[in-house]
Write a structure and sequence with these properties.
It contains ten helices and twelve strands. With 262 residues, the chain is of the alpha/beta class. It binds adenosine-5'-triphosphate. Belongs to the ABC transporter superfamily.
Length: 262
């Protein structure tokens, strides 16, 4: 599914949180949003999901304005895994993932065997199939994150929005998740802090103070000069001889002077 935004923005009172974001994301693309803390990544994802009242600008899904769609129509197209998900403590892992099927159900189309298969497949994809009966409240942080991703997969969306999906995950599950989402036949937009992981995206958008200040391939966007200006780090590109890919080693710019002062 293609997602296009025009002059997307949002203000909290007098403070402009996201300003004038115009983007065109192609069907099947994996698009990473990067930027320092508070630069507006989560707010931009929420704007793309149509969750923010009084949004400025527009969002088009395959040329259809998001605002013209009903909640159910949006939920059949977009799944969103936010950073902090409120889920009732009384639910089991299976209940949470089954919630992903809600947009596809109605009084005449109740939950059926096909939905159960989709739920099982989603749990399998995140390695949680053996935990179906476990209570949500008893899960670890990383397990909760994987279950929320399974819920989003069970929704069978055409656009998947993920806000820092690798948070809480151990390194194996971080890499497995990024591989999983990049192989999905859907458009994926994800906010990431790990810039080496961001290198794996098809394209990156860089947020700074609410503005989209750069957009392009990882190699175009992640230059040592930009990383120094935006993230205040010295980024040294290193080459992995295993596959000739580029990795960055980071050093904090300004941290040395702070340490010397102490
Ligand atoms: N409802 C709100 N009212 C006031 N300020 C808000 C509101 N929501 C977000 N902000 C502010 O907007 C800015 C951007 O927040 P946002 O969560 O989008 O940033 P982010 O880039 O996702 O940050 P992080 O990397 O820390 O998760 C922050 O300074 C935040 O405090």
């Amino acid at each position: 599914m293609r997602l296009a935004t025009t002059a997307l923005g949002w203000a909290a009172g007098a403070r402009q949180i996201v300003s004038d974001v115009t983007l065109d994301i192609a069907p099947g693309e994996t698009f990473g949003l990067i930027g320092p803390n508070g630069s507006g990544k989560s707010t931009l994802l929420r704007l793309m999901a149509g969750l923010v009242p009084r949004a400025e600008g527009s969002v088009l899904l395959n040329d259809v304005p998001l605002v013209s769609l009903s909640r159910q129509e949006v939920a059949r197209r977009i799944a969103f895994v936010e950073q902090q998900v409120e889920t009732s403590d009384a639910l089991s892992v299976c209940d949470v993932v089954e919630l992903g099927r809600t947009p596809w159900l109605s009084a005449v189309v109740p939950f059926g065997p096909q939905d159960a298969d989709i739920v099982r497949e989603a749990l399998d994809a995140v390695g949680m199939a053996d935990r179906v009966a476990q209570g949500w409240s008893t899960l670890s942080g990383g397990e909760r994150q994987r279950v929320q991703i399974a819920r989003a997969l069970a929704q069978r969306p055409r656009l998947l929005l993920l806000d820092e999906p690798t948070n809480h995950l151990d390194i194996h599950h971080q890499l497995a998740l990024l591989r999983l989402v990049s192989r999905l036949p859907v458009t994926v937009i994800l906010a990431l802090h790990d810039l080496n992981q961001a290198m794996e995206c098809d394209r990156l958008g860089v947020m700074e103070s609410g503005h989209l200040i750069a957009c392009g391939s990882p190699a175009e966007v992640l230059t040592p000069e930009r990383l120094a200006a935006i993230f205040r780090v010295r980024a040294t590109p290193l080459r992995d001889p295993a596959d000739n890919s580029t990795l960055f080693r980071f050093q904090c710019l300004g941290c040395e002077t702070e340490r010397t002062r102490k």
